[in-house]
Amino acid sequence: MSVLLGAHMSIAGGLHKAVDRAADLGCDVVQIFTQPPQQWPCKPVQVLTKNNNQWAAKPITESDCSLFREALKRTGVSRPLAHASYLINLASPKDELWQKSIDSMVIEWQRAELLGLDGVVMHPGSFVESTPEAGLERIAKAICEIHGRVAPKSAWLLLENTAGQGSNLGWNMEQLGWLLERTGENLMVGVCLDTCHAHAAGFDFSTAEGFKSWEKDAKKHSVLGAIRALHLNDSKKDCGSRVDRHEHIGLGTIGLEGFQRVLKHKTLKTLPMYLETEKGTNADDEEWDAINMRVLRELA
Ligand SMILES: [Zn+2]
Hints:
The chain is of the alpha/beta class. The protein is built from 9 helices and 10 strands. The chain has one domain: Divalent-metal-dependent TIM barrel enzymes (TIM Barrel).
């Protein structure tokens, strides 16, 4: 079986346009924002009751849904995934922001369910001026409440490992494993592994030993079996820098051999993989997404 590769695509012009863009580039899979990521999401359908404009994004209509599903069917692009708004912080020590983050994540998840997505990826959160322990407690409590309100049937909530920048939580396997354990086996909560973030967080994916030590940690904390998707990004910054800057595949500090280990790993190679690298074209006018996928397919 060959690997399932794709990329994050813009929804400009409609949600279904992202699927068409993915198909045009030769993607097997696609990731989208179901709303602009710098805005608070909106209700999944036209059910806005309160007259407040703080929920900035547009609702998803029935026609949006059918166009989206039709595009998947027509193109054969599969495993659609969403990435949640960047404003959401389930670890926030501020009650108002925490509650708004919970309400927003409910909406994000409902939107993913409505569109029939595989899941929605979320950064666990930042503890800001509290402590990592307090932040993790907040996240676990929030996820249980959100899961209860959404009662998901098909879409999973995927916690993404972070680079550990600032007070970002979920950069090591222990924190992710703790969150999975606290939210329990019966919830539809899994993990999305971002290669750039893992490398920047201190797991040296450029060496066999570094990758092994990540794998050991991921097994020890029961994270490996919970991974349901991958973000494939090389890193502009060094291993352990705790700085999140994505680079094209093979051109960063992870390098081609590092990606080959990921692509040949017996568990990881079976999972859908999404690029989140910079868009645009190279000097020969070839799309970077297409180049990155070609490089990865050759390595696989
Ligand atoms: Zn990512």
